[in-house]
Amino acid sequence: MSLLRYTLRRIAQAIPVLIGIVTITFFLANQIPGDPVDIMLGPTPAQEQVEAIRAQYGLDRPIHERYLTYLAGVATGDLGLSIYYDRPVLEMILLRLPVTLLLMLSAFAFAIVTAIPLGVISAKRRNEPADHVSRIVSLIGVSTPSFWIGLVLIIVFAFHLGWFPARGLVLPWENPADVRGAATQFEVIRQSVHHLFLPMIGLGTLQMAQITRIERSSMVDSLQGEYVKLARAYGVPESTIVRKHAFQVAQLPVITIIGLGLSTALGGAVLTETVFEIQGMGRLIITAINNQDYQLIMGTTLVFGFVYVIGVIITDITYSYLDPRVTYGDD
Amino acid sequence: MSINSATSDDDTPDGDDESGGGPGEVEARVGLRYTLKQVRQDTTARIGTYIVGFITFVAAFAAFDYYVLDYAIAEALLYNPEADPQNVRRLLPPVGLENQFGQGVIEHPLGTDHRGRDILSRTIYGTRIAMTVGFLATAIGLGGGTVIGAVSGYYGGWIDDVLQRVTETIYAIPFLVLVIAFMTAFGRDLTFAMIGVGITAVPVFNRLIRSRVVSIREEDYVEAARAAGVKDRNIIFRHIIPNSFAPVLVQATLQVGVSILIVAGLSFLGFGAQPPTPSWGQMLSASRGYMLPAPTFSIFPGIAILITVIGFNILGDGLQDALDPRINN
């Protein structure tokens, strides 16, 4: 089976999961106590007004009918209207999703760039001081709440040293005219990197620690492999063995852990956005909940799920592309 | 002692060893006595036990003081200004910064919060909540995951398909978001935080138990039990599950730490423990408004979370090494 067919099959397999996500989200949102219409219209609304709003948002129809309508809507990209913002939910999400994706991508970039050398050094110098340091760092990393790292970073690097801004985010593709103190696009990008630095570390530390742990154990296994022993026997230099033979095979479990880490990182993004007051998907879902905005709660929850599923598909495909042993066969 | 409470359920069929084909080494690797012996020999596991033991002791102290003595010890050792609203001194720094020049030398070793409450005593009280939540959420995940995983793996077929698709779907929503949605629907307090976090742990244990069951199902002694007419339910609960003791114990230990982290995050967002209940996440949330005048207010509850979760992670790693037959000689 070709890579393309494998990709298509993997996407087809995801469809029931996506329908499942819509179902769970829909029924959870319908359990929410309180009536959104009451919140919109205040304590003593006119009866006709209530009925008009109910009809407008489809709240007067039975639940199974609403479910099917919603499912059909999701399939065509219609996530309904946000009661609080009075705009289409999809529009709100498309406005916020790039912010969260930018945050996530930078966090994973930070994690991968720092974790892989740490893990490799740790494995190469097993039980030496460098290994102990790297293991302690990664142990602390997996045990620290990301939002607390954010708070500490703000206190030290924003308030005391004044090196980085404590809140907000400038997007690199924003128009220079809309960004204060930026005349050119380059200036906008510079400001964006400056703003992104602390949130990136706050969100990325957990991923960094997890990837370091896997990288280390995977490299330790790989360095004990038969082919490595053979290469050594042939007199291949140790650095070449590490770089060419052991390293590539050892990356497969790392890709798996990155895929699994997406779930934690998406949840972590909600917290990081709160700490740094970044207007992304995380803040959007919290705003939606605080205003009992049904449609927006459903929309944001299922987009979180969709992003995760798509991320896992991408890591699966990367895995099968890199692993020579995968035959794309039936399993 | 925390190990006991987490595993006492699985401990009962300890004597099942002889039901195997022979009293082999692998069969002996189940049960509590073996675990304790291994833990004593493994340095990492021992350090983890000390930290978790210490945290459990602190939590027990807080629970005792709360339920039995009505804040008597906390008030005697660490002045509790809530009982004396006239004397509220706000945002005192910890001893060692400027506090020693005031009156708060012994009373507020870590300073006070924005309402003049002692940070150390609130941090100690936070331990009680964190430990309760960590253990109960894990127990819910373990219970649900074990039943679903065992049934799924043992029967296979369409039951397996249906159960696995459902847990897969639960797993497909980032767990913090799922718990937030769940709590919005059912309730914002700590009980629902615990249940919600427990539900997100179900797929983890389900996967673990299911894979064990599928591999053990074909073992000779299970075949023999089935041939001898032992009921399916008894085979699952008396033979298969006890044989999965070691990996489940490791996973459960790590899961307690994960649950504490998630619940702290939830409380930070305003889901979970509600004020004035002293929980670490909620203390950190309150500290956000005072990061400039009182940075230490944000530091200590975080360190408490860090130490607790590190304890469970070290213990989990240590147990893994101690109970892994490949590592033992």
Automatic annotation (TrEMBL), chain A:
<keyword id="KW-0813">Transport</keyword>
<dbReference type="Pfam" id="PF19300">
    <property type="entry name" value="BPD_transp_1_N"/>
</dbReference>
<feature type="transmembrane region" description="Helical">
    <location>
        <begin position="296"/>
        <end position="315"/>
    </location>
</feature>
<feature type="transmembrane region" description="Helical">
    <location>
        <begin position="12"/>
        <end position="32"/>
    </location>
</feature>
<keyword id="KW-1003">Cell membrane</keyword>
<feature type="transmembrane region" description="Helical">
    <location>
        <begin position="97"/>
        <end position="116"/>
    </location>
</feature>
<keyword id="KW-1133">Transmembrane helix</keyword>
<feature type="transmembrane region" description="Helical">
    <location>
        <begin position="136"/>
        <end position="159"/>
    </location>
</feature>
<dbReference type="GO" id="GO:0005886">
    <property type="term" value="C:plasma membrane"/>
</dbReference>
<dbReference type="InterPro" id="IPR035906">
    <property type="entry name" value="MetI-like_sf"/>
</dbReference>
<keyword id="KW-0812">Transmembrane</keyword>
<dbReference type="GO" id="GO:0055085">
    <property type="term" value="P:transmembrane transport"/>
</dbReference>
<dbReference type="InterPro" id="IPR000515">
    <property type="entry name" value="MetI-like"/>
</dbReference>
<keyword id="KW-0472">Membrane</keyword>
<protein>
    <submittedName>
        <fullName>Peptide/nickel transport system permease protein</fullName>
    </submittedName>
</protein>
<feature type="transmembrane region" description="Helical">
    <location>
        <begin position="252"/>
        <end position="276"/>
    </location>
</feature>
<dbReference type="Pfam" id="PF00528">
    <property type="entry name" value="BPD_transp_1"/>
</dbReference>
<feature type="domain" description="ABC transmembrane type-1">
    <location>
        <begin position="97"/>
        <end position="319"/>
    </location>
</feature>
<dbReference type="InterPro" id="IPR045621">
    <property type="entry name" value="BPD_transp_1_N"/>
</dbReference>
<comment type="similarity">
    <text>Belongs to the binding-protein-dependent transport system permease family.</text>
</comment>
UniProtKB/TrEMBL annotation, chain B:
<dbReference type="InterPro" id="IPR000515">
    <property type="entry name" value="MetI-like"/>
</dbReference>
<feature type="transmembrane region" description="Helical">
    <location>
        <begin position="192"/>
        <end position="209"/>
    </location>
</feature>
<feature type="transmembrane region" description="Helical">
    <location>
        <begin position="129"/>
        <end position="157"/>
    </location>
</feature>
<feature type="domain" description="ABC transmembrane type-1">
    <location>
        <begin position="127"/>
        <end position="316"/>
    </location>
</feature>
<keyword id="KW-0813">Transport</keyword>
<dbReference type="GO" id="GO:0055085">
    <property type="term" value="P:transmembrane transport"/>
</dbReference>
<dbReference type="InterPro" id="IPR050366">
    <property type="entry name" value="BP-dependent_transpt_permease"/>
</dbReference>
<feature type="transmembrane region" description="Helical">
    <location>
        <begin position="169"/>
        <end position="186"/>
    </location>
</feature>
<feature type="transmembrane region" description="Helical">
    <location>
        <begin position="292"/>
        <end position="316"/>
    </location>
</feature>
<dbReference type="Pfam" id="PF00528">
    <property type="entry name" value="BPD_transp_1"/>
</dbReference>
<dbReference type="InterPro" id="IPR035906">
    <property type="entry name" value="MetI-like_sf"/>
</dbReference>
<feature type="transmembrane region" description="Helical">
    <location>
        <begin position="248"/>
        <end position="272"/>
    </location>
</feature>
<feature type="transmembrane region" description="Helical">
    <location>
        <begin position="47"/>
        <end position="69"/>
    </location>
</feature>
<keyword id="KW-1133">Transmembrane helix</keyword>
<comment type="similarity">
    <text>Belongs to the binding-protein-dependent transport system permease family.</text>
</comment>
<keyword id="KW-0812">Transmembrane</keyword>
<keyword id="KW-1003">Cell membrane</keyword>
<protein>
    <submittedName>
        <fullName>Peptide/nickel transport system permease protein</fullName>
    </submittedName>
</protein>
<feature type="region of interest" description="Disordered">
    <location>
        <begin position="1"/>
        <end position="27"/>
    </location>
</feature>
<feature type="compositionally biased region" description="Acidic residues">
    <location>
        <begin position="8"/>
        <end position="19"/>
    </location>
</feature>
<dbReference type="GO" id="GO:0005886">
    <property type="term" value="C:plasma membrane"/>
</dbReference>
<keyword id="KW-0472">Membrane</keyword>
